[in-house]
Amino acid sequence: MLAESDFVQRVTEIITSIITKIHPCQLEFGEQNEDLDDFEETSEYDWLVIDTALDVIIGLAAALGPMFGELWKIFEKPVMKYASSQEPIERSTAVGVIGECTSSMGEAVTPYTSSLLKLLLHRLSDEDQETSSNAAFAVGLLVEKTTNDQEILKSYNTILGKLEPLLHKVDARLLDNSAGCVSRMIMKHKDRVPLDEVLPVLAELLPLREDFEENEPIYKMIVQLYQSGDATIRNLTHDYIPIFAKVLGPPQEQLTDEIRSQLVELVKYLYKQQPEFIQGNQTLMAAFNS
Fold first, then answer.
1. In sequence order, what DSSP letters do the residues of 151-164 get, joined into one string?
2. Which helix (H) or strand (E) holds 221?
3. What would the pLDDT profile of 199-236 be if each residue is shown by its tens digit?
4. At a CB cut-off of 8 Å and minimum separation 6, what does 45 contact?
5. How many angstroms separate the CA atoms of 248 and 262, rounded?
6. What is the value of pTM for the model shown?
7. Nearest partner of 83 among 123, 43, 46, judged by Cα
8. Is residue 60 within 8 Å of residue 53, measured between CB atoms?
9. 201/179 Cα distance (integer angstroms)
10. What pLDDT digit, counting tens, does each position of 4-56 carry?
11. What is the C-alpha to C-alpha distance for residues 24 and 66, in angstroms, rounded to an integer?
12. What does the alpha-carbon distance between residue 55 and residue 93 come to, in Å, rounded to a whole number?
């Protein structure tokens, strides 16, 4: 198995030494620079090396998928230490790493649910918007991927409470990740989310302006609600129709081919049910006739 190969083991050892600041390149550089100006340059150099190592961890997770769960045992403590740093750049980067690794390892994240959730809940309220944005992204993925539903459900109201103020910020990426997080929560446990409160807020935020990747959970959630005959989303069709038109239009990269196809099928369904909402909209009529 790749996760047990000598190559992965060697890479893991090197990366671990870097993120724990004991790699020779860090020790030697630090010993040679003693005045204040050099110390500042050393700090910048140190973080560049660590940041690059954290990127390698993300790459390992993407390559190994569920097998990465075993390696996370090694990386968890130092990454979480950076996620609790006094430096905003370190917190935001480390929380982003947690989100990306969670996405890649899937259900293998389950044993780490409690420790990750505790950290991420704290970071959702971070004063640094980049950190809280990454935390929203990571929480949503943790909710989606873990099978420890009992642990997650205990914190559902807390998560929603921390997301609520984020959904009223002006930062586009923060809004996008928060919308993606609540959408993943709806898909996982619809009955634990007050749809009559959340869906109108989402309608005001959409379409996303920056992080198009979060369109996938959002529109997948919307399609699922229509498929299940949910009354709340059906009553908001008038509000969501203009949003569908915008995301089905340019730029093309707003949606993956899979989500675009699902949304087109939804438009066709809605035309049969409520044609007055679709008629007159050039983009949606083109989708209907495709």
1. HHHHTHHHHHHHHH
2. helix 215-227
3. 999 999 999 988 899 999 999 999 999 999 999 999 99
4. 29
5. 11
6. 0.90
7. 123
8. no
9. 9
10. 578 888 999 999 989 988 776 766 554 444 443 443 444 777 889 999 999 99
11. 31
12. 9
Sequence-separated (6 or more) residues with CB below 8 Å from residue 80: 94, 98, 115, 119
b/e map of 165-191 (b: 16 or more CB within 10 Å)?
Answer: ebbeeeeebbbbbbbbbbbbbbbbeee
Distance in angstroms between the alpha carbons of the first and the last residue of the chain:
45
Residue with tokens 């993943």: 184
Nearest to residue 100, comparing CAs of 213, 19, 188?
213
Instruction: Supply 84's token pair.
Output: 């609790």
CA distance 113 to 101: 13
Cα–Cα distance measured from residue 170 to residue 253, given in angstroms and rounded to the nearest whole number: 23
Q: How many residues does the chain have?
A: 290
Phi, psi dihedrals of residue 85, rounded to the nearest 5°: -65, 160
Dist CA 105 CA 166 (whole Å)? 27
Cα separation of 113 and 265, whole Å? 36
Q: What are the tokens at 115?
A: 């420790």
